[in-house]
Amino acid sequence: MDSLAGKVIIITGASEGIGACLAAALRKRGANLCLTARNVAASDSDVIVPGDVTLDSVRSAIVAKTVERWGKIDILINNAGRGSYYAASNTPLDEARAVFDLNFFAPLALSQLALPFLRQTRGTLVNIASIAGEVSLPWLPVYSASKFALAGITAAQRTEFRRDGVHVMGVFPGYVNTDFQAHATGQPPPARVVQGKKFAVSAEECTEAIVHGMTHRKRTVVTPRSGWLLVWANRCFPSFVESQLERALYG
Ligand SMILES: NC(=O)c1ccc[n+]([C@@H]2O[C@H](COP(=O)([O-])OP(=O)(O)OC[C@H]3O[C@@H](n4cnc5c(N)ncnc54)[C@H](OP(=O)(O)O)[C@@H]3O)[C@@H](O)[C@H]2O)c1
User: Fold this and answer.
1) Number of separate domains in the chain
2) Among 7, 147, 198, 250, the one annotated catalytic
3) To bridge 54 with a disulfide, which of 79, 94, 101, 187 should be the other Cys (CB 3.0-4.6 Å)?
4) Residue 175: active-site member
5) How far, in Å, is the centroid of ligand 1 from the Cα of 79?
6) Could you tell me the residue range of the domain that residue 36 belongs to?
7) Is position 3 within any domain?
8) CB 181, CB 135: distance < 8 Å
């Protein structure tokens, strides 16, 4: 098991939700952090890079300031992301592109910038996808597509980087109790989906699973683990799962 004490860790989307919870947990374990988001609070102990991670200049600053302060990068956690509840039939294309910019292109670009440093430390790349990157959710169609894309590049990165000793982990959370829904654009999700929030895990539970995955160099984390049931049901019985999703969509 890898200790996280003294590791230099970049977390995107660290101002709230899962990212803020990860920051608190990793700080407690003695990690040195670079935290970034548009509204991230100042800190004496951490490197803080405020800004929009879809911008080249912000991504370059994240890597440059981390290396300037700590001299290395051990772990990059691509966590920033947002939902979009527009239907597939009427998602504005600008919205679809913006979702992909944040959920797919930003993590891809940041991992390209961090890779030379991750090679030096034989470090870890963590991409926070979603269960929606395994099972396409019809009330979050473009979001699902962006997370499928992220899951796809994660698998390819794992194969490409393995020879350099860089560990690549994909994370597939189900429902996590954060303000994700409130931050998503588009129409409100269907009532059954909103009710499903009572089955959500906490950001702390999700964080624990991610930290366990990092210290044990897991390839994939599905949290809660019951999410595997949905993943396998979808692989083995796709028509059945689609009919259940249709019922959830239309009530
Ligand atoms: N909550 C869930 O049920 C769930 C389930 C599966 C997967 N996920 C994934 O988990 C990750 C974290 O989600 P969460 O639930 O913690 O969501 P959240 O509470 O809405 O937090 C999202 C974080 O991303 C940051 N962010 C958003 N747009 C950004 C931008 N353009 N540039 C930089 N930072 C940006 C936000 O900070 P600022 O607003 O300050 O920029 C915030 O810190 C996301 O990738 C999400 O897709 C969540």
Assistant:
1) 1
2) 147
3) 101
4) no
5) 7
6) 8-250
7) no
8) no
Closest CA to 73 of 112, 130, 21, 104: 112
Q: Which of 85, 86, 143, 175 is catalytic?
A: 143
- For ligand 1, atom 8, name the residue with the nearest CA: 130
Distance 240 CA to ligand 1 centre (A): 30
Domain-embedded: residue 63 = yes
Q: Is residue 48 part of a domain?
A: yes
DSSP 185: B
Q: For residue 20, give the ligand 1 atom closest to its CA.
A: 43
User: What is the distance between the alpha carbons of residues 156 and 105, in angstroms, rounded to a whole number?
Assistant: 15
Q: pTM score, two decimals? A: 0.98
pLDDT tens figures, 159-215: 999 999 999 999 999 999 999 999 999 988 888 888 888 889 999 999 999 999 999
Q: Ligand 1 pocket test: which of 180, 220, 226 has the largest number of ligand atoms within 8 Å of its C-beta?
A: 180
Q: 3-state SS of 16-38?
A: CHHHHHHHHHHHHCCCEEEEEEC
